[in-house]
Please model this.
Amino acid sequence: MENFWTKLPKPFTVLAPMDDVTDNVFRQVVLSAGRPDVFFTEFSNADGLVHGANGIPLRKLNFTPDQHPIVAQIWGTDPVNMEKAARIAAKLGFDGIDINMGCPVKEVVKKGAGAGLIGSYSLSEKLIDAVKKGAGGLPVSIKTRLGRNENIAQEWVTFLLKKNIVALTVHGRIAKQMSKGEASWEEIGKIVKIRDRIAPETLIIGNGDIKSYAEVLKMQKKHGVDGVMIGRGIFGNPWVFVKDLKPVEHPKKDYINLLLRHIDLFKNTWGESKNFAILKKFFKMYVKDFKGANSLRIKLMEAENFEEVRRILWSLD
Model:
């Protein structure tokens, strides 16, 4: 089976998997603004996929044909269910499967999943082998962090690189930091050097605090990463993946039009029955840094349905 990772330009860009954010609708919005080279889904629970495949976990794996190449990210601690989940994802037509070994959310870590797997070598090996088996030839990658409560990246990454994975994404923080403090790209650079010695064919993707395409190029040149994953940076600049060294200052109208597109896609994809409140968390991304933004955001947050939001936006000059 073809490995799409080998055909990507360098440095390539990736939209990070963010739970309850980077769903099918949000990825379509990003597509309309300026696509990354690779999309990741939200992270999906393997147990939920296996035992409740018609519920929320499966909805997290919805995607449109124009989102290829797209990678399904799964998480869990049961090798049997991870294998089955990988098989489900493969049948859905994904281009690759990623194992989440970096989520810092306490509820996930307490279960021994996500970043809770960092340092758990025996179980992690079983999970990787299981996903490879279920993937049916699809390329398998891993996303992780520098450590759980302390930096053990040298030992941990050495172990992962010996598992013959196609790509390794490293967030430059330990799990305990969550998103606090600066991401350590110096540590990511050290991981690139470890890769060069152990597994030169494995791609290294750096992640953390990137806000522009110019920074993508800078990190590739300075630290030698093959690609850069951007997460929270998309909230500050929806056009962050546009490959322009001189970022365009988008006017208020561009943000409003993008929000209107988000609203239409949300309604058309999920229907009126989907909780309207879910959409409200995105308003701050579009309504900011222009005259009257605060009052406009308050009006939007007080709106009770899609049509009311549209009327408010259409009434703007």
